[in-house]
Design goal:
The complex is a heterodimer. Chain A is built from 38 helices and no strands. Chain A has helices at residues 17-26, 35-49, 58-62, 70-83, 95-102, 107-118, 123-136, 142-158, 160-165, 168-175, 181-196, 207-217, 222-231, 240-250, 259-273, 279-296, 301-317, 337-350, 356-366, 372-388, 393-405, 409-425, 434-439, 447-459, 467-475, 483-499, 504-520, 524-539, 541-548, 564-571, 577-581, 605-609, 645-653, 662-672, 677-692, 694-699, 702-709, 724-735. Chain A is elongated. Chain B is α+β, with helices and mostly antiparallel strands. Chain B has three domains: 4-129, Beta-Lactamase (2-Layer Sandwich); 171-275 and 388-423, Mu homology domain, subdomain B (Immunoglobulin-like); 279-385, Mu homology domain, subdomain B (Immunoglobulin-like, Sandwich), CATH 2.60.40.1170. Chain B is built from seven helices and 26 strands. In chain B, the strands form six sheets. In chain B, strands 8, 9, 13, 15, 18, 20, 21, 23, 25 and 26 form a ten-stranded mixed β-sheet that branches. Chain B has a five-stranded antiparallel β-sheet with strand order 2-1-5-4-3, with helices on both faces. Chain B is globular. Classes of the chains: A mainly alpha, B alpha+beta. Chains A and B meet through helix 2, helix 4, helix 6, helix 8 and helix 11 of A and strand 2, helix 1, strand 3, strand 4 and helix 2 of B. Chain A: One of its GO terms (molecular function) is clathrin binding. Chain A: Keywords: Membrane, Protein transport, Transport. Chain A: One of its GO terms (biological process) is vesicle-mediated transport.
């Protein structure tokens, strides 16, 4: 049968309602094999596909239901599914035919009838449907039952009160004990959907049911396995032994060919591990998870992408998984760009002393490729590698210098940006390369790289002989620069002045810049900082020196790890959209159900200490905190012990690159004013505190640290475009 | 879950549009067209706008698209798109604009059968073909009894197989196909060598045969546990078709199953240890001043001299400002393809142990701006029959059926590379 070709392409032509009507009427007579009728209906379906409104043909098309051809019936049903909803006053014509089919001897016809009816969610249809559904849920044929189970979900979505009043939810619950695994799986899928809607029904599993569901896995279709596995997160183990036993039974699913089964099984295992105490089993599960994850990397590129984004989360929470597998994440020359970028991030995460050399060699290769974003990220990764792995810092610096030699502007700019961070990580070690950087100053035309270079000039003004000349050149265009460059220039000239108080150029420069900043520029940040420096220098130059040149804490890479509570929560969404964007779904999808670990006697003490409880309601646009003018006090946002809800609010609203919450404002100023001493310390002080104090850790958006300490390293992370808070509502309404 | 399913052609015209839920209107298709089809720089297979997410897979000249407003299981959505593509191929022989347009009515039937309200349902090709056909069926023609058989199969424990299959001659063909992924550095060190294998089976067996399958494998969970284990091949991981009983594999390492009728992929595996690279490439590429690049590339067949590599194609990159390439080869044909900036060297056959050499000089135009040449890797495609790079061998395939018939089994091995065997220089 394969290879058989239809000949229907000719029907893809815009047609007129009147013509079709005439043709349908003509088909009433002299149409022995229903050939004519079939042809018209195909034309109509093709027109529906093309987006032409065929609804005026309603009464004409439904006439065809009398024809005994299944093909014709299905086309009429397709028509009804498209337009039935819009014809509440005419739909009654077809109800008798539906009802007849609901009682057909043929189970396929019975299922087709209820399936189609449930796609027309208006009272006129739902009323008779719910009667039929009651029988069909108990039909002797499993195919009808599995279809009916999904129909309940449709009914519930259309009219939840009717579905509840009719006792359908209870019937679904009973179906979880059906003898047929496909029926069980669909009942679970329907219940999950109903439970996620948050209007009354709560879907939870107890140990007995959970075990029964696992037993059904073996006989389920692959999709059914996914629904069942997913539902296991609704079971909260009361005893560690329960979680351990269940985990052992789920492990076998890791060998499944369907990547969604594998990822969902991994999600269940990661979840259950929070409730286990047997260390050896946990280690064993971690070992078992690695190979299937790697295998996902040889699937189609789209699945690879999903897998890679998830791996990035998993290895942060369970670092032993894939610890030795950095090589499999090396990019192939012909990988799609989204795969390459995701791999690069994982390579960085997996890099350590033992493999740093190999990783660096790869990154150097990538730095000569064509895609600008990829090259930039590769260069940045070299810098991050230097910061992360001390033993590799020397060779990384050498690599960066080689890259600067290429004189490719975007490469040079990236290299300068990361070099600045390297200086901060290893104070006093690599300043010897400054002349090299200065040689390439002309290549810098982007604000971030310019600001970085200026920071370097200011910070090491005492070591750079001609720092005053160089800054003088840069100050020339002060008024046209971006704010972050202006801020950097302001701070750098102040530093220069403090270092070289007797230099006339320095005096002149600082005076000029302070005057511009306070009198000519509209930006309040810049103006305020200008005033601050000015007064400080005027009142007591010695104190100013102490403040401006205070020793800065070295930066570390501890900060670019997501905190554990947030990770635990995100991993409950393994395999889903949320895991791709590394955001909890309720923060970017309207009405999405959030998830959180539930406390129980079995919950691991460490997991409990970072437990994030779920906020009961979704944020409406009004809930979002927008920082107003005036002094910012971070204290109110640091949660008092025990109350984690405000903390939650912050960690969710402040995504990378999006609007920030109060706490973050401070950091984003620090970020934009790379040269500003006022901000430099903050980032890291916070971070250090986080590591030991879970409560404080929760308070911050996991990426807020990262953005602060690492400039724009995560700027190219995949993100949903325009969240619900801004244009979102408008967009939603506009389109749908 | 999936709210809408579309197929677009390259121009962004809708060929198939099925809204499973009422949260979208058909006009959502326009958004996809603007965001993806007419966007020349799409950098993700998933695009989220507000609460709406578009998932797309490109195949030939089509976009297969699923749209959702929920936090959908992304892996499931893509697997569903892949499955749709393979079903369409099985039904129509190919999937492209023409075949979709020619069969749109059947496609609508199919996507309503394999997906209900956005939840993927039974999508086993064999079962689907028993009741969704490309020929017209009179409603009454499927007798109720026949239908019950179909429905119990579609929902049953072996949803992939009809019970009533009969063959005069019972045969099973096993193809072990290995794809070698190689990435070799300019210095000749192996950065990565990996075998992606899959075992394709064509089963033409009557009744409900119980099959047992044996390999010379050894699954390694912990790499530290590795030791000299005779001729056993170390597999890093394997995954099975849904017919394989995973519990049994987990407890006793036997691969036992009731196969679907006809062709299916029994298992997939991955191996990284002791990968035997069938072709060795030694390259010397020198940039002579700014006007010339010289190439000396030797390819050596590193396997038993009774076997041979066929369809060997090397793609050797040249700088962007190449005007002409002068190639000298003893075997095969080499040709400069300016549009792709490569020299394509095709060798129809290389016997085991044999060596071939390629000599060439590329002339460059002098450019005012001297840009560094990125030096993309040399890419090698080839096929070697009756050779496995991992060393995997099928030990046995046993078929048990209650009628106790005799069955014939055939095994074939193939190692190949396409686009994944890369040598940097």
């Amino acid at each position: 049968m394969s290879g058989q070709q239809g000949q229907d392409a000719k029907f893809f032509q815009r047609g007129k309602i009147e013509e079709f009507r005439t043709e349908l009427q003509a088909a009433e007579s002299k149409d022995k094999k229903y050939q004519k009728r079939k042809t018209v209906l195909k034309k109509i379906v093709a027109n529906i596909t093309m987006g032409n409104d065929m609804s005026p043909l309603f009464t004409d098309v439904v006439q065809s239901l009398g024809a005994p051809l299944l093909e014709i019936k299905k086309m009429v049903y397709l028509f009804l599914m498209s337009y039935g909803r819009l014809k509440p006053e005419q739909i009654h014509i077809v109800i008798p035919s539906f009802l007849q089919d609901c009682n057909d001897r043929n189970p396929l016809i019975r299922a087709l009838a209820i399936r189609t009816m449930s796609y027309i969610p208006i009272p006129v249809v739902l009323e008779p449907l719910s009667e039929q559904l009651r029988h069909c849920l108990k039909d002797r044929d499993p195919y009808v039952r599995k279809t009916a189970a999904i129909c309940v979900a449709k009914l519930y979505v259309a009219d939840s009160r009717k579905a509840e009043k009719g006792g359908f939810v209870e019937m679904l619950r009973d179906m979880m004990l059906d003898t047929n695994a496909t029926v069980v799986a669909n009942a679970v899928a329907a219940l999950s959907e109903i439970g996620d809607r948050q209007d009354g029904v709560i879907f939870k599993l107890n140990l007995t049911i959970a075990n029964k569901l696992i037993a059904a896995l073996g006989e389920s279709s692959e999709w059914g396995q996914i629904y069942i596995l997913d539902s296991l997160l609704r079971y909260v183990p009361e005893e560690c032994a329960d979680a351990e036993m269940m985990g052992e039974r789920v492990i076998v699913q890791l060998q499944h060919a369907n990547s969604a089964v594998v990822l969902t099984a991994i999600k269940v295992l990661l979840y259950l591990m929070n409730y286990m105490e047997n260390r050896r089993l946990i280690d064993y599960i971690c070992k078992k998870m690695g190979p299937p994850l790697v295998t996902l990397i040889s699937s189609g590129p789209e699945v690879q992408y999903v897998a890679l984004r998830n791996i990035l989360l998993i290895i942060q929470r369970r670092p032993t998984v894939l610890k030795n597998d950095v090589k499999v994440f090396f990019c192939k020359y012909n990988d799609p760009i989204y795969v390459k970028l995701a791999k690069l991030e994982i390579m960085y995460r997996l890099a350590r002393d033992e493999n740093a050399k190999e990783v660096l060699a790869e990154l150097q290769e990538y730095a000569s490729e064509v895609d600008v974003d990829f090259v930039r990220k590769a260069v940045r990764s070299i810098g991050r590698l230097a910061i992360k792995v001390e033993g590799a810092a020397d060779i990384c610096i050498q690599a960066l210098l080689d890259l600067i030699e290429t004189k490719v502007t975007y490469v040079v700019q990236e290299a300068v940006i990361v070099t600045k961070d390297i200086f901060r990580r290893y104070p006093g070690k690599y300043e010897g390369i400054i002349p090299k950087l200065c040689e390439n100053m002309d290549a810098l035309d982007e604000p971030e790289s310019k600001a970085s270079m200026i920071w370097i000039l200011g910070q090491f003004a005492d070591k750079i002989d001609n720092a005053d000349e160089l800054l003088d050149d840069l100050v020339y265009t002060f008024l046209e620069e971006a704010v972050e460059v202006q801020l950097a220039l302001l701070t750098a000239t102040v530093k220069l002045f403090i270092y070289k108080a007797d230099s006339e150029t320095a005096k002149e420069l600082v005076h000029k810049v302070l005057k511009w900043a306070t009198e000519e520029v509209d930006n309040p940040d810049l103006r305020d900082r200008g005033f601050m420096y000015w007064r400080m220098l005027a009142m007591n130059p010695n104190v100013a020196r102490e403040i401006v040149l205070a020793e800065k804490p070295a930066i570390t890479t501890d900060s670019d790890r997501m905190d554990r509570g947030a990770l635990d929560q995100l991993l409950l969404h393994t395999g889903t959209l949320g895991s791709i964007y590394h955001k909890n779904p309720e923060t970017f999808i309207r009405n999405a159900a959030g998830r959180a670990l539930t406390d129980s006697p079995a919950l691991n003490a460490n997991s409990r200490s970072v437990l994030v409880t779920l906020r009961p309601q979704l944020p409406s646009a009004a809930n979002i905190n927008v920082a107003g003018p005036g002094p910012i006090e971070p204290q109110p946002n640091v949660p008092a012990a025990g109350s984690s809800r405000p903390a939650q609010l912050i960690s969710e609203d402040a995504g990378p690159g999006e609007e920030r919450d109060l706490l973050d404002i401070e950091e984003s100023t620090a970020e934009s004013g790379t040269g500003g001493d006022s901000g430099e310390g903050n980032v890291d002080v916070d971070v250090d505190a986080d590591d030991d104090d879970p409560r404080a850790a929760k308070a911050l958006d996991p990426y807020a640290n990262l953005a602060g300490a690492f400039g724009g390293y995560v700027a190219d992370q995949p993100q949903p475009i325009s969240g619900t808070s801004q244009r979102g509502g408008e967009l939603d309404d506009l389109l749908f | 879950m999936i709210s809408a399913f579309f197929i677009f052609n390259q121009k962004g015209e809708v060929l198939i549009s099925r809204l499973y839920r009422t949260d979208f209107k058909r006009s959502i298709a326009d958004v996809f067209r603007i965001q993806v089809v007419s966007n020349s720089d799409v950098r993700s297979p998933i695009i989220t706008l507000g609460s709406t997410s578009f998932f797309h897979v490109r195949v030939n000249n089509l976009y297969v698209v699923a749209v959702t407003k929920t936090n959908a299981n992304a892996a499931l959505v893509f697997e569903f798109c892949y499955r749709f593509i393979s079903i369409a191929k099985a039904y129509f022989g190919k999937i492209d604009e023409e075949s979709v347009k020619n069969n749109f009515v059947v496609i609508y039937e199919l996507i309503d059968e394999i997906n209900d309200f956005g939840y993927p349902q039974n999508s086993e090709i064999d079962t689907l073909k028993s009741y969704i056909t490309t020929e017209s069926v009179v409603s009454t023609a499927i007798a109720a009894e026949e239908s019950s058989k179909i429905t119990s199969q579609a929902t049953g424990a072996t949803s992939w197989r009809r019970g009533d299959v009969k063959y005069k001659k019972n045969e099973a063909f096993v193809d072990v196909v290995e794809t070698v992924n190689l990435s070799m550095s300019a210095k000749g060190t192996i950065l990565r060598a990996e075998v992606d294998g899959h075992i394709q089976m064509r089963a033409y067996l009557s009744g409900s045969p119980e099959c047992k399958f044996g390999l010379n494998d050894k699954l390694v969970i912990d790499k530290n546990e590795r030791g000299a284990g005779g001729d056993a091949v170390e597999l890093d991981d394997c995954r099975f078709h849904q017919c394989v009983r995973l519990n049994e594999f987990d407890s006793s390492r036997t691969i036992s199953f009731v196969p679907p009728d006809g062709e299916f992929e029994l298992m997939r595996y991955r191996s990284t240890s002791n990968v035997k690279l069938p072709l060795r490439i030694i390259s010397t590429v020198n940039e002579i001043g700014t006007t010339q690049v010289s190439y000396v590339i030797t390819i050596k067949a590193n396997f038993n001299n009774k076997l041979s590599a066929t369809s060997v194609v090397l793609r050797i990159p040249t700088p962007l400002n190449t005007t002409n390439v002068d190639c000298k080869v003893a075997s095969g044909k080499a040709k400069y393809v300016p549009a792709e900036n490569v020299v394509v060297w095709k060798i129809p056959r290389i016997q085991g142990g044999q060596e071939c050499t390629f000599n060439a000089t590329a002339d460059l135009t002098s450019t005012t701006v001297r840009q560094v040449w990125a030096r993309p890797p040399i890419d090698v495609d080839f096929q070697v029959l009756m050779f496995t790079a991992s060393g995997l061998i099928v030990r046995f395939l046993k078929v048990f059926e209650k009628s106790n018939y005799h069955s014939i089994k055939w095994v074939r091995y193939l190692t190949k590379a396409s686009g994944s065997y890369q040598i940097r220089f």
